[in-house]
Amino acid sequence: MRLTDKSSLLTANQTQLLDQNAKTPFSFGGYNSLDDILTQLNVDVIIEKGGLYHSVPKSLNDAEAFWKGLAEPEACHYNCPFGLRDFASHENNNRSDKCEACKVIREDICKEKDALLNTLILGLYDPARNCIILYPDAMMLVYGGKWMDELLVSTLAHEIMHAYFNRPGHDKYPYIYFVEEPLAEFGMLFYLHQTGSSYYDWAFNNVREKQTCYHYGADLMTLTLKASNPSGSSYYKYLLAYKKSLPIGSMIYTIGIISKRAIIKTAFDNLYADLGDDLTNYLRTNLASGTMTRTPATIPLTSGSHISVQKWAPTGRSRAIILEVNKADYPRMNTAKKYKNRNRYFADTYEANKLYPDSIFILLNQWGGGSISFNHIIDEFCKSVNTMTATGRPDYFSTGVIATLKMPV
């Protein structure tokens, strides 16, 4: 293990403790120890001063914005992702009431954000630098200097799990906060348990008491130990395989069914990220192949005027799946009641600066499915996105997902 401690923040005994634990034999994903993971993946361990609090990852802010939008009365009345009728807002058709399901989910996300913002960073894995950073000063603050050995070893093991998740062939997949952090805790606990560490009980209780989603790592460990062969349990096999392509349901919280809106939004956002946050290549490719057409149109405003836009639709269809709006005109969309109040398009905007630098693009938010006409649109849209599948990534829309989108609502 290559460990750098320029400020001599660790004692000689603590440095030796980390080295010994890292070299303890531990068969995991083709590696022989935590040290073997660090060595083969060429990961450095750096000891640094200071103590910072966690920031909120983009995926968590995006999730809050998603559910906040759905909790608005008009949006949920027309587009509730659950199709439930046991909430007052649905039973009474009362648009002045917010959908309680969406509201509760948003509140849970806000609680997660608050807990995270009040949690000190004890260590982190930096994929850009391919290094692990440990913050012993922050560890000293957590329990007033107690349990330092336990914190050092468990934090190092947790961060090594993140490095493992980012190994070659898996680094192309995105970081999903609600999935990766519990799994890293689970991996850390499994390591301590399998190596017979005296720190296991302390670490398990520490994880279980956390106020963030990290505490699910303890639940995963409990379920794994219930198996007759923990190393053969489905939870452990999933841990070994991660990072991997995630089913849509892993990224968007659902009740009983998968929201078609969530399927569309997640796949398109993955495409956008893979294209470097620019739709230029997607639009050019589909125009050239004839799968999509760009047609001028107008949107009437409540003031009596209108906005000139471009409709992007599957060839031969008039329904726009993507609407192109001039950046200067986009704020005026707030007065286009037909589009805003019924939540016809997602609130997020996309850009294609290499092709249309003065435009922004918004994605259709109404995906009923079931009719021959609309199912053709779904087929063509999914085809247009899957055409751009990144190297090593499976299709954005699998055959099963497309079938789900085409089911009647």
Top keywords for this entry?
409 residues; alpha/beta; four-stranded mixed β-sheet; four-stranded antiparallel β-sheet; 18 helices
Q: Can I get a quick summary?
A:
With 409 residues, the chain is of the alpha/beta class.
Characterize the structure shown.
This protein has helices spanning 12-23, 34-40, 58-71, 73-79, 88-91, 100-117, 136-142, 148-165, 177-194, 200-208, 216-225, 234-241, 248-251, 260-274, 280-289, 337-340, 372-386, 399-405, and strands spanning 3-4, 44-47, 123-126, 131-134, 292-300, 306-314, 322-326, 359-363. With 409 residues, the protein is α/β, with parallel strands linked by helices. Strands 1-2-4-3 form a 4-stranded mixed sheet, with helices on one face. Strands 5-6-7-8 form a 4-stranded antiparallel sheet. The model is unreliable at 81-98 and 248-258 (pLDDT under 50).
Strand content: 5-15%
Order of neighbouring strands in the sheet with most strands: 1-2-4-3
How far apart are the termini?
A: 56 Å
Biggest sheet features: 4 strands, mixed
Give the radius of gyration: 25 Å
Number of helices: 18
The total beta strand count reads 8
Alpha-beta content class: alpha/beta
Question: Which stretches of 5+ consecutive residues score pLDDT under 50?
Answer: 81-98, 248-258
The amount of helix comes to: 40-55%
Would you list the SSEs in sequence order as H and E?
EHHEHHHHEEHHHHHHHHHEEEHEHH
Shape: elongated
